[in-house]
Amino acid sequence: xxxxTILAFALVAFIGIATPGPTVLLALTNGSRYGVKRAIxxxxxxxxxxxxxxxxxxxxxxxxxxxxxxxxxxxKWLGAAYLAFLxxxxxxSKGTIQVATEASGSGHPVSAVAIFVKSFLxxxxxxKGYLFFTAFLPQFIDAAAPQAQQYATLTFVFASxxxxxxxxxxxxxxxxxxxxxxxxxxxxxxxxxxxxxxLAGSLALYRRATA
Length: 211
Hints:
By secondary structure, the chain is mainly α. Helix content is 77%, strand content 0%. It has one domain.
């Protein structure tokens, strides 16, 4: 694997990641609600999902989802339902933006673990991710060379780009929160909630490519 191959992979990965999707929208929301420092927990959850998705693809799970209508549908509806749940929660939000903590219904602050798990689940239950990596990664893999090291390199590069892009979105959210009044915070939550619901709808309507 040459340096030019890695650079090309990083560029294509950046374009794909920077296009607003569930994980970067969560990074934006987390940044606005908790500040960049606490939003890092969500970024790490999404990065862990990168390792899980690419590892699963390397082991053949992506090919299984591409071939099996049943398992594709199961993962698809799990992902769509979770995105819809998060979208509804944001639509119902009263726009309470707190840089340090956000009070939950029980009066306790939302933990870093909860932020981490939320972002991880959003990414790992999206079948598009498995199909994307199944189609995307082999184009940068040299079949004549040992593949484990190549997959490890591409995983590290993708996770690094993903982390950088999410950090940028979280920073944008935190900066927006600093200038928003209460009514503006409500509309920011509703905008992100509506976007997540739209993504849930598009995922629910998404179908496998058939030969």
